[in-house]
Specification:
By secondary structure, this protein is an alpha/beta fold. It has one domain. It is 34% helix and 16% strand. It is built from ten helices and 14 strands. It has a six-stranded mixed beta sheet, sandwiched between helices. The chain has a four-stranded mixed beta sheet with strand order 12-13-9-14. It has a two-stranded antiparallel ribbon with strand order 3-5. Strand 10 and strand 11 form a beta hairpin. Helix 3 crosses helix 5. The longest helix has 19 residues.
């Protein structure tokens, strides 16, 4: 009886936060950043965009209907998820996210904690996933694509949502969790997940973040024992991949593809990052010194290796479909 009473009190304690969450109706097209007009590919992408909200809210949480966030998300999807549009139908929900201010002078541990406390944002993504899989996916294989804050949420999706929906998880071609650390500890805690080892393994996580060899100052995304894969040679070793291996980079101003691409790539396991040495640091570094210091190419994680990501998605899709049709 005493045990039941304690559990009952605990349940009551949880109720206010649970009931304070707002329901986001994803049958409403206005709550989607992107819905395909027509299904033309046998595989989908479910995309979770990075931090794009600059509005100054007291809570630092940007609501789903914030116009500035929505406008910025429409721009960033072209730089990231559309790398996969030649091989997959792209679905992307709006969601409640932290603004840039929330991450100033922060660190990886705090960002982890803050992300888990964004209950509305997690709830939005889960509701969008529920609606997508029930009404839009039609049992097609899918790729999870995300960046930065979006990737922090993707890791929660992978560790929780996919674990609790194995019938869905078995259809995941791969998860491109870019611009956020995937650590050995995370995989140890989630033995149902695995990190990519080559160019065409499936059901795996792909992750990296890019910086200059001269990177200085704060790096809010540094974490020890970060796992990385090189987006040019698709190896996890520190073997150098030259600029000549880069099929094409995306110019974010013109949206034109530069061939060959501008960036080389080499894993630095100690720094937990891909080192790029072939670009002008001042031109390409992300201008957020309170978050990334100097010399971070976090804002170019997709653009630098745009066509290599596209080709890699094609390879993983072909392998997945071949194995599924055996």
């Amino acid at each position: 009886m005493k045990k039941f009473f304690i559990l009952f009190i605990y349940f009551l304690f949880l109720l206010p936060s649970a009931f304070s969450l707002e329901y986001t109706d994803y049958s409403n097209k206005n709550n989607w950043l992107n819905l395909p007009d027509k299904i033309i590919h046998p595989v989908d992408v479910f995309y979770i965009y990075p931090t794009v909200c600059s509005a100054d809210y007291k809570s630092n949480l940007c609501p789903i209907n914030d116009k500035q966030m929505q406008t910025s998300a429409k721009s960033v999807i072209k730089l990231q998820a559309e790398a996969f549009k030649t091989h997959a139908n792209i679905f992307a929900p709006y969601y409640t996210q932290y603004n840039f201010k929330a991450f100033n002078n922060s660190n990886f541990d705090k960002i982890q904690k803050d992300t888990k406390e964004n209950l509305q944002g997690i709830n939005d993504i889960y509701l969008a996933l529920d609606y997508y899989f029930k009404n839009l996916n039609s049992s097609r294989p899918f790729i999870l694509v995300s960046h930065s804050q979006g990737s922090a949420l993707s890791l929660i999706v992978l560790s929780d949502y996919m674990k609790n929906h194995p019938e869905i998880y078995k259809n995941m071609v791969a998860a491109y969790v870019i611009g956020y650390p995937v650590t050995k500890e995370y995989l140890k805690q989630n033995p149902h997940l695995k990190f990519a080892r080559k160019n065409d393994d499936t059901g795996v996580i792909i992750s990296y973040d890019v910086q200059s060899p001269n990177k200085t100052g704060i790096n809010v995304l540094y974490a020890p024992d970060t796992l990385l894969i090189n987006p040019l040679n698709w190896k996890r070793s520190e073997k150098y991949a030259p600029e000549a291996d880069n099929l094409g980079s995306l110019d974010e101003k013109t949206l034109k593809i530069i061939t060959p691409g501008v960036a080389d790539a080499k894993i630095d396991k100690k720094k937990g990052a891909i080192i790029c040495s072939t670009v002008d640091e001042k031109q390409y570094e992300i201008k957020l010194p309170l978050m990334f210091g100097k010399g971070s190419y976090h804002g170019q994680d997709f653009q630098f290796y745009y066509l290599n990501l596209r080709k890699n998605a094609k390879e993983r899709i072909e392998k997945f479909l071949k194995n599924r049709n055996k």
